[in-house]
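[audit] Reproducing an earlier prediction to check determinism. Same input, same settings, fresh worker. If the tokens differ from the archived copy the diff job will pick it up downstream; this log only records the rerun itself.
[audit] input (236 residues):
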Amino acid sequence: MSDTSDEVIVYRRTVPKSYVKEARKRVGPKKQRIRPIIERLSEEYADATIALTFANPLELLVSVMLSAQTTDVNVNRVTAALFQKYHKPEDYLAVPQEELERDIYATGFYRQKAKSLRGMMRMLLDDFDGEVPRTLDELVKLPGVARKTANVVSAELGNAQGIVVDTHVRRLSQRLGLTKEEDPVKIERDLMKLVPREHWARFPHLLIWHGRRVCIARQPRCEDCVINDLCPSSRV
């Protein structure tokens, strides 16, 4: 489920500034709320994890790259067959690009994704001995790998160096009063100052699961929210 910036703006404009100010006083400072928020969501979504299916770091990286502009469910359908055919970087370079495009066609933007995958595989072989790097600085050097993808991969490999900001994380962070920013990089910066580092990898999953199930974009179910007393945007 995606959210647009227009939705965020409309939501904010319908709430009077005076109400927002009073609501923030009611729930308390964000630095005092962040741990209770994490604790309650962790209890509510004990099994919160990434929705992509993968068996090793290379499959993880490919899955995250293919997930751009499509759903995780769709990616998993495609990679179920893809990972039976392609096992190592050399495999992606051993076929014509047109063949790889056909294999990932259902994920959308298949030409650009195929080009990025092949460029990424070539760099893995040339610069990283065919292994997926673990650090953010190294990951973002790979073709087709932006900061969000690098954050997801490094976090799933046990080396979180930032906080993933997708549409759910952005929306919930704003509603919870954890940030006033719109730009994902600035939102991430705000969250990194608030969220204890040991929770950097898990925190996005908690917000994503909560955003999909309860804090929905158009009609948040505040009455069913386990953190409604900690949220300045709560309608209950």
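[audit] rerun output stored. Observation attached for the diff report: The first helix runs from residue 5 to 13.
[audit] end
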